[in-house]
Specification:
By secondary structure, the protein is an alpha/beta fold. The protein is built from 13 helices and 18 strands. An eight-stranded mixed β-sheet has the order 2-18-10-13-9-3-4-5, sandwiched between helices. Strands 1-11-12 form a three-stranded antiparallel β-sheet, with no helix packed on it. α4 packs across α9 and α7 crosses α11. The radius of gyration is 22 Å and the shape is globular.
Length: 412
């Protein structure tokens, strides 16, 4: 597509972003077209709106928070088999697809490459991608069905991710894997000016895991799922090596209760663990951040001694495909994060900051929960389903994940 440079300049002047073309004349023709395409696709009104919110003084909470009911998977007794059979039938009938959000890099782990290619140090030296693929292959065999696997990459790691799968012959699951790319938004400085990256293009950052709904819809993956007969979609992250994407009990509960969304939780390690917790906000399902909850609320317990806000959201959610389609059409609110970002200034000089200097905007997956009337929460065991790999050392590190994985599969 050809872009009119004069129209682009007019658009930039309107929004006070003329500096985005300072590197234009130094770029080759392909990069010039890429830059113009980027600028043409920017919703400047949206960026201005999100940026202006970064200047808002924190307001009092304008929502009512209440506990949300949950089901303990291991206290279901006779109901366990009932829900399990409902879910098993749906899986055998090919109604389930799985989505893994894998747009991140392994930088925090000291790994050069997509996070999914990281080896957590098992004796097998299998990557996170291979561990999840092995699990899906086993489940497909168990249910005599091919469970489609949709992998969300980012512009930054899409090529490397696909190259990794090609090099490893897709771990024998080639016909069932589909890749799609996460959306991005420009980063802005403290004055609201969009940053220029070192390559002369607009500096962008992934739009958060909340962008998964829109990305699934825009990429055509929702349509692909429909063609495959999918009715239920499990969405989880790449960094949990114990994630159970195929759970007939969770599916059975969602189907039986007639809800379009369900989520898994684990009990907080302590009342003040820095995790988001399932709750209801203004009567609708939600996740409350640890920073939003008072000490009194965090420590409150019911008559059985259970924490009222103790169900940690572990990014393991199941949605009816109709809910994903609806959420993909409804923009979620964006949150800002103050980050350190290298950029090219208005004089064409490279700036390497000492500390945070720019805003990254991202949406959170759980902000869409308020779009559904109700959802099922299933409490599971941390040691069976939650072994995140987030930090190089300490809590949620390769060491802790490796131990949980080995203990669960009795590999020690």
């Amino acid at each position: 597509m050809q872009y009119n440079i004069e129209e682009i300049k007019h658009k930039l002047k309107k929004y006070g972003q003329e500096h985005l073309l300072i590197c234009y004349d130094k770029l080759d023709e392909n990069k010039q077209n890429e830059l113009l395409k980027q600028i043409d696709g920017i919703d400047f009104d949206l960026i201005n709106s999100i940026y202006n919110k970064t200047k808002d003084i924190a307001k009092e909470q304008d929502f009512k928070v209440e506990p949300i009911s949950f089901i303990d998977k291991y206290k279901l007794n006779d109901k366990y088999k009932y829900y399990e059979e409902i879910g098993k039938k749906a899986i055998r009938d090919g109604k389930l697809a799985c989505v893994t959000m894998a747009g991140g890099q392994g930088t925090r782990l000291g790994h050069n490459g997509p996070k999914g290619t990281f080896d957590i140090g098992l004796e097998s030296h299998k990557s996170l991608f291979e561990l999840l693929c092995d699990y899906l292959k086993e489940e497909s065999k168990k249910y005599n069905v091919q469970i489609p696997w949709f992998i969300m990459t980012s512009k930054q790691n899409n090529k490397d991710t696909i190259d990794f799968f090609e090099k490893n012959k897709y771990f024998g699951y080639e016909k069932n894997i589909y890749f799609f790319i996460q959306g991005e938004l420009p980063m802005v400085d403290t004055e609201g000016k969009i940053l220029i990256d070192e390559d002369g293009l607009v500096k962008e950052a992934a739009d958060g895991h909340g962008g998964v709904y829109e990305s699934l819809l825009k990429s055509g993956m929702v349509q692909k799922m429909k063609e495959l007969g999918t009715q239920w979609v499990f969405i989880g992250g790449i960094d949990n090596c114990l994630v159970k994407m195929v759970d007939p009990v969770l599916m059975g509960i969602a189907i039986d209760k007639g809800v379009t969304a369900a989520g898994k939780s684990v009990v907080k390690a302590n009342p003040h663990e820095k995790v988001g917790a399932f709750c209801k906000k203004n009567g609708r399902p939600a996740v409350i951040e640890y920073s939003e909850i008072t000490d009194e609320m965090a420590e409150a317990r019911d008559e059985n001694g259970e924490l009222l806000y103790g169900e940690s959201h572990i990014l393991c959610n199941l949605f009816n495909i109709s809910a994903i389609e609806r959420m993909g059409k409804t923009p979620l609110p964006y949150h800002s994060a103050y980050k350190k970002a290298t950029y090219i200034d208005k004089d064409g000089n490279k700036v390497v900051p000492d500390g945070p200097n720019a805003y990254k905007f991202e949406a959170f997956l759980f902000d869409a929960f308020g779009e559904v009337d109700d959802m099922a929460i299933l409490r599971v065991k941390r040691e069976e389903e939650f072994a995140p790999v987030k930090n190089a050392t300490g809590v949620d590190s390769p060491e802790t994940a490796r131990k949980l994985y080995n203990d669960f599969y009795k590999l020690n």
